Amino acid sequence: MSPARVLIYADLRSLAPQPDQRRPARAIELHITGNMERYIGSFDGKKYSEAKTPIAFRYGERPRLVLVNDTMMEHPFHLHGMWMELENGGDALQPRKHSVSVKPAERLTWRSPPTQPADGRCTSTSFCTWSWDVQGRGGIARPGGAS
User: Fold this and answer.
1) How many CB atoms sit inside 10 A of residue 134's CB?
2) Which pLDDT value is given to residue 129?
3) 20 to 30 A from 53, CA-CA: which of 31, 79, 110, 132?
4) What digits encode the pLDDT tens for the residues 102-132?
5) Whole-angstrom Cα distance, residue 116 to residue 60?
6) Of 82 and 98, which is predicted with more confidence?
7) Cβ atoms within 10 A of the Cβ of 15, count?
8) Per-residue b or e along 46-84, where b marks 16 or more CB atoms closer than 10 Å to that residue's CB
9) Are the C-beta atoms of 27 and 63 separated by less than 8 Å?
10) Measuring CA to CA, how many Å separate 133 from each of 43, 65, 128, 138?
């Protein structure tokens, strides 16, 4: 019996190639920031309440999302309506994740095609919110209004 070991994201591979092998059309980089003593999370230095507009995604688009954790705290991340194909060196076998955890000072990237139809609900995990509007466009709350 081999000794047990803790797996890291670089160890994960999908059992079968991911069906969507398109290159991402664009990259969106978000820096996780905030005051960890007061548990105030933010993206790019702005609280959720300061976000002017969400980042717009089109159904079927394949963006690359980049999270850079500028804090000294680990942050879970989940997007409703999207799977995350973690870019960990697995190429066609990169793992599909439902949630990820971004460690302090870590940079994590994934490809995320919005694959679920719009349902109009707004839900939240950590300090990231994903929702669909009535036209079927999705968005993630992002300070500064840039997309």
Assistant:
1) 7
2) 39
3) 110
4) 999 999 999 986 665 544 343 333 334 333 3
5) 9
6) 98
7) 6
8) bebeebeebbebebebbbbbebbbebeeebebbbbbbbb
9) yes
10) 22, 20, 16, 6
- Tokens in use for 23? 């290159």
Q: Tens of pLDDT along 61-96? A: 888 999 999 999 888 888 776 788 999 999 999 999
**87/90 Cα distance (integer angstroms):** 7
Instruction: Please check the confidence at residue 137 and state whether its pLDDT lies above 50.
Output: no
* Global pTM exceeds 0.85: no
Q: Per the structure block, which two tokens stand in for 110?
A: 């994934």
Burial of 25 from C-beta contacts in 10 A (0-12 / 13-18 / 19+):
exposed
Structure tokens at 21: 């092998």
Query: Where would I find the beta strands (DSSP E) of the chain?
Result: 27-35, 40-43, 53-57, 64-69, 75-77, 84-86, 96-97, 100-102, 107-111, 122-125, 128-132, 138-142
CA angle 74–76–78, rounded 5-degree value: 160
For residue 77, what are its two tokens?
A: 């991340």
